[in-house]
Amino acid sequence: MNRVRCLVLNAALGPLDYKVPEGMSVGPGHVVECPLGPRTIIGIVWESERLPGTEVPAEKLRPLRSILPVPPLSAPLRRLIEWTADYYVASLSSVARMALSSGGALKGPATITEYRLSGGMPERMTPQRHAAMEALEGEQATIRELAGIAGVSDGVLRGLVNQGVLEPVEVDCDRPFDQARPDFTQVDLSESQKIAADTLSEAVRQQKFAPYLLDGVTGSGKTETYFEPVAEALRMGRQVLVLLPEIALTENFLHRFEERFGVTPVLWHSSLKSTQRRRAWRNVASGDAQVVVGARSALFLPFRNLGFIVVDEAHETSFKQEDGVRYNARDVAVMRAHFESIPVVLASATPALESLQMAESGVYAKLDLPSRFGGAELPDIDTIDLTEEKPPQGMWLAQRLIDGIAERLERKEQSLLFLNRRGYAPLTLCRNCGFRFQCPNCSAWLVEHRFTRRLACHHCGHETPSPAACPECGEPDCLVACGPGVERIADEVAERLPDARVFVATSDTLNSPGRAAEFIAQVETGAIDVIVGTQLVTKGFHFPELTLVGVVDADLGLEGGDLRAGERTYQQVAQVAGRAGRGSKPGEVLIQTRHPEASVIAALAAGDRDAFYEAETEMRREAGAPPFGRWASIIISSEDEAEAREAARRIGDVRPDVPDLMILGPAPAPMALLRGRYRYRMLMNARRSVQLQDVIRRWLSSLDHPPGVRVGVDVDPYSFV
Ligand SMILES: [Zn+2]
Ligand SMILES: [Zn+2]
């Protein structure tokens, strides 16, 4: 009797056994349709010895329905799914779901109908038709897409189809992408770039697991360096995965990639259309997609022949997924390389302490790029003590910073002001009665956005028009903005330097690749003098005329008592400082602070990275924090406050007593209400010797909760809200 065990895509179910029908040939990794009651569910055939389940008698087994027309998931990917589920205390099915991330792709080959101009003329020409036909010259796309391009309704184009002016073309949904050419251009590398590139290229040829940390100051040419091993993998006919933290803002990267390899890479991120998604997925699975550039979810794509992984800006916290399976893509990337037996490189100018520690202990090999490419020098960094150099009443920028910007204006150079706060003001209150605008769904203040005249919650997206009168006391025109956001800083610059052309660069204004490209073009042509931006502008941009960076409030990130606050502040300020003076002109950085003596600020001002990391390492060692000890948290939430509290209490009551493991809580989370859910937290701090995941799994599996309660586990947490 031929039977198989399947991992089915339903977290509530364990593995299920099925009968293999006569004539079906199936093995581990095959994606199959399984009967489940009256329904059909998608499953993955798995090695039964790796997936313990209850043995069902043969006569009770139901037959598999079919094998889906996709290549089987490879053994390395199956091991990665197992490891991720185990390490992050998640269900196997929720991780497997990330690998089968395109529903369309699973259905097999398909075609769509696109349309293009046939050269014919309509019986009756209208101005609207004429304009549409002009706009569609040389275009080929679906009716919906063409309507978007021409700016007319679908109906207008359907009329043109009926008259034969637009002709249909059958297109393969999964047509291959253009081929990258490893030797499209030759590049000049500095001596240290060449050493690093050669080492990585050799590792690609070796085809063995080898993790590297590429540690290079901002502007040292990390991208050009890792492009060489990418080229080597291409020459060997192998696939490459490059993970980037902010996929929406990769214009600069894509441009450099195209210059080096003659094509743009295959993109993978959450805002792909479903047709783009299936095309990418199927080309990755067939081995035809050569280089995939993606957000963290690209890690679970079904590569057929992966040869090299790059994690760029590897210190970025956006690699940590904060809901569902709470994994850290940086760490999972290293594990994928391990299972695939290939090299992986983590590239950063400000590596996470965890990564540095791995290099120090010899687990990762470290490659250094000590200087800026092309002889550009690192910027001069100075602090402005806001307790001494007070900005004028109601203002946020010290005179020295304003003078610095004015100097750049005169020299036709550019300045960047960094403040990690979107909107106009983080808090709005009533002058008359003290009423504060709070989000109804979250423990958070509403942030005023003057551009859109709205108050918005940055946690759940709740928005309301800015009212003319106080909703509490009814007093008109009584609302006061408290504290600065980027919009307010932009207003201040415009007021104090009326000639400056100011642009606010945040996720509100750069919300599409097109707008990002437009912004870059404006800066490059000198149409913008002062950029006021959030963390979005701290990385990736390369503006040779940008010679002054001002950090509006370096103390902001240090508030809140987050474990990694110091490190994050250091990384953020060092990254934004790295935007200054990237061309031939020297850069200057001015950091506004109320605590110039704080170790992180002092280290930044002195340009002494080692001093910062040493102090931070000592602090973590003493606190038993990562990488010396381990943290994990449990988040219990429900839309019902009492239900959440009760579930948290019950979990707390049966806490395990394990040596070298400290368990704190349950306590209301700092964000006690988030997106309409009441939240409680428990925090664990363990020595590295504790089998933390086993402890958590055993602990939580002993309890059942009402259906409205969610219990989430966060291993190696980054967020403590
Ligand atoms: Zn009021
Ligand atoms: Zn909210």
Describe it for me?
The chain is built from 19 helices and 29 strands. The protein has 721 residues and is of the alpha/beta class. Helix 10 links the parallel strand 12 (306-312) and strand 13. Helix 1 (75-87) packs across helix 2, helix 4 (143-150) packs across helix 5 (154-162) and helix 6 runs parallel beside helix 7. The longest helix is centred in the N-terminal third of the chain and has 16 residues, at 191-206. The chain is globular and about 85 Å long.
Which helices and strands appear, and what pairs or packs with what?
Layout: E1 3-8, E2 16-19, E3 31-36, E4 39-46, E5 66-67, H1 75-87, H2 92-99, E6 111-117, H3 127-135, H4 143-150, H5 154-162, E7 166-172, H6 191-206, E8 210-216, H7 222-235, E9 239-243, H8 251-261, E10 266-268, H9 274-286, E11 291-294, E12 306-312, H10 329-340, E13 343-348, H11 353-360, E14 365-369, E15 380-385, H12 399-410, E16 414-418, E17 427-430, E18 447-449, E19 454-456, E20 463-465, E21 479-482, H13 486-496, E22 502-505, H14 513-524, E23 530-533, E24 546-551, H15 565-577, E25 588-593, H16 599-606, H17 609-623, E26 629-638, H18 641-653, E27 661-674, E28 677-687, H19 692-701, E29 710-715
Parallel strand pairs: 8-13, 8-14, 9-11, 9-12, 10-11, 12-13, 15-25, 16-23, 16-24, 22-23, 24-25
Antiparallel strand pairs: 1-2, 1-4, 3-4, 3-5, 6-7, 17-21, 18-19, 19-20, 26-28, 26-29, 27-28
Helix pairs in contact: 1-2, 1-10, 4-5, 6-7, 7-8, 16-17
Bound molecules: zinc ion (2 copies).
